[in-house]
Amino acid sequence: MSVTVRIPTILRTYTGGQAEVAAEGTTLGEVIQDLEKNHTGIAARVLDDQGKLRRFVNVYVNDDDVRFEQGLETATPDGAGVSIIPAVAGG
Amino acid sequence: MRKMRRKGLASMAVQTVASTTDSAAANSVDLGPAAALSCRECGHRVPLGPVFACEECFGPLEIAYDFSAHDTEELRKRIEAGPANIWRYAPLLPVPADVATKPNLNPGWTKLVQADNLARELGVDAGKLFVKDDSGNPTHSFKDRVVAQAIEAARAFGFTTLSCSSTGNLAGAVGAAAARAGFRSCVFIPHDLEQGKVVMAAVYGGELVGIEGNYDDVNRFCSELIGDPAGEGWGFVNVNLRPYYAEGSKTLAYEICEQLGWRLPDQLVIPIASGSQLTKIDKGLRELIGLGLVEDRPYKIFGAQAEGCSPVSTAYKAGHDVVRPQKPDTIAKSLAIGNPADGPYVLDIARRTGGAVEDVDDGRIVEAIKLLARTEGIFAETAGGVTVGVTRKLLESGALDPSLTTVVLNTGDGLKTLDAVAGTGLTATIRPSLESFREAGLV
Prior knowledge:
The complex is a heterodimer. Chain A contains 2 helices and 5 strands; from the N terminus they run ββααβββ. Chain A has helices at residues 28-38, 42-46, and strands at 2-6, 20-24, 57-61, 64-65, 81-86. Chain B starts with a helix and ends with a helix. In chain B, helix 10 (250-259) packs across helix 11 (276-290), helix 11 (276-290) crosses helix 13 (343-353) and helix 12 (311-318) packs across helix 13 (343-353). Chain B is globular. Chain A: This is MoaD/ThiS family protein.
């Protein structure tokens, strides 16, 4: 399954400045693993030492916050858009 | 020329993130005692710039200060001789020393009302209950305090457009401040906000965009816009200027203590939306202690949410240290943030200080709005109904001590949320005659 991942500004040093990159995977966890293959170091910024999403990272698959879905097990259908966004905004 | 400067400074944001060493460009920014940005999670430091999330761990960046030059008594005298607005505290804020001379709404120094009538109703000892009434700010909510900081940061970083995601109050505060300071504004709100807040945001002439979704959807949109060329050169007060913006809430702590005679309150009841205000009030209190301006003694901080959007209260009661997002459904729309950015820190502070986080349902919020109006002549917006309602609940449960000095925050004006008390109206309609007046049973 091929998806498009929107990369926040603070992670673009890992993607050569690209705001969007393609990745493969049937779940969010697999997509992050695939990102790591092509953009070494990015997974450790998104995941904590236990391999869970960091608490100040929001991830959306299409329009759905994965915390309302199955977290890293959330399905990523072919053509889906994945957005990684710092959570410390707003208020 | 202006456009080039704006682009150059905007790109500085990216450089700042990419570099962990101080740059001459960043350090040339004059924001008074603000020395750097520091990650609240991991302590990673970066130079001052329009950035908000840590490049290492995504944690929130906040201002690190250099207060070493302050002599306590000189500082106290300087503050007391300062203007009757937040700039009396300029030496403790991320603003240039001459901030009071710049075009700004100059908010703050709002009333701290000794609420003896409310105290009697709630069973609090006389002289112990106070309402910090921030409806007296220029756009009638506490948001003027935070926007005033963001405006100065926006000036320092060369932005010419101000933006934000808003539940309503902030949209008005940004619109007004931008108008006064000569910025363009383009702000984003949920499309179904209270009419009063929509009008108050639109009247200042900036662009106001309704997003089909709730606040969290609006916030997500803004966070994506900021990383897109469409948002280049924009200062989002509560996104890329958030470290500066959030510091404005410290002024609530400063004012409360100064108005109490340079004394800490024993207990504070503070509304929670993102949780930023509560965390910064705590920061302000700790700064005053550190500077020797108040005596170092314990205080308790209580957070207040609406039951229909209570992710922090739910986490507190469950003993969790992480906050699971909720889909908001409450009349308290200014607090309807289902995914509160500072939620984990609110939990830490409530537990560290011996306070708590509680919530009340919409019915109790309306009752509390009317109670505050009836007893103290203060017409609060729904967020004020939440804090007064939670205060009552905490007193009933024994969590709040009625013998201690307690400050309850009202953060906005009831005229903005008239729908919440829409059933309130005429006592009677009569003919213009004494007979009719008597017949109505009003004599």
